[in-house]
Specification:
By secondary structure, the chain is mainly beta. 10% of the residues lie in helices and 35% in strands.
Length: 248
């Protein structure tokens, strides 16, 4: 508590046995997802299917399909990427599934209408509407090692929306709902989605290799502030400063 930014993958609900021994509980994570293709590949958030502060998957992943008969499908993890908070899982539904179509998030504009779909608080297939409030939003300045350039929306996003799709008005997925700003645990109209343009190459690598391989530059950089620019004799505070070069 106290942190204004709630990582959706840390949404664990504890259910104790009435009258049972103290500390006897199950840890459950509630989240959403979007079907990638008819063979049962599903995209969701890393924090929905992975244990908190661990690279291990949760003990069991159960998937319900919208419009189905309530059947629970056991899912396996195809691949997961902590940096982008994305994961691909797979189910065997015994039938072809209807897959969502992805759009180009780079073409959306601030003010465009969007729909967010998920299961907030377990209320399945809830649709909320809003607009794109900002693009390229860095929600945790100063934190390294995680993706930071989110789409911001005022569509209501709550616990259980994690991993669900954000659609444009053409019915194309342009984002994956991932986090909210919430001083009280509920939606205050500030939600964040991973852009589809970033998700698509991650999805392909997770499906092919089970992980994402990235290049390593070997340097540490920092922003050129006005003070640094002045000390270096630069006319403007632009660009990046190489602060350190990794040995070797």
């Amino acid at each position: 508590g106290g942190e204004p930014f709630d990582d959706f993958f840390n949404r664990f609900f504890r259910f104790g046995k009435p009258g049972g021994p103290p500390g006897h509980y199950q840890r459950r994570s509630l989240g959403s997802g979007v079907i990638l293709d008819p063979r049962g590949f599903v995209l969701t958030n890393y924090h929905v299917v992975m244990q908190k502060d661990s690279d291990k998957a949760v003990d069991r992943i159960e998937v319900y399909l919208h419009g189905d008969d309530g059947t629970k499908y056991q899912a396996t993890i195809v691949g997961a990427d902590r940096w982008t908070d994305l994961a691909v899982i797979r189910i065997d539904a015994g039938k072809k599934l209807t897959a969502a179509q992805f759009g180009d998030s780079s073409s959306v504009k601030v003010g465009d209408w969007v729909l967010a779909i998920g299961s907030p608080f377990g209320l399945e297939s809830t649709v909320t509407a809003g607009i794109i409030s900002a693009k390229g939003r860095d929600i945790e300045p100063g934190r390294d090692g995680q993706f930071k350039r989110f789409i911001q929306t005022d569509a209501a996003i709550n616990r259980g929306n994690s991993g669900g799709p954000m659609f444009n008005m053409q019915g194309r997925v342009i984002g994956i709902n991932t986090a909210i700003y919430s001083p009280n645990g509920g939606s205050v109209g500030i939600g964040f989605a991973i852009p589809s343009s970033l998700a698509k190459p991650v999805i392909e690598q997770l499906r092919q290799h089970g992980k994402v391989e990235r290049g390593w530059l070997g340097v540490q950089i920092q922003q050129v502030t006005p003070e640094i620019a002045k000390s270096l004799g630069l006319s403007t505070g632009e660009g990046a400063l190489v602060a350190d070069v990794t040995t070797g």
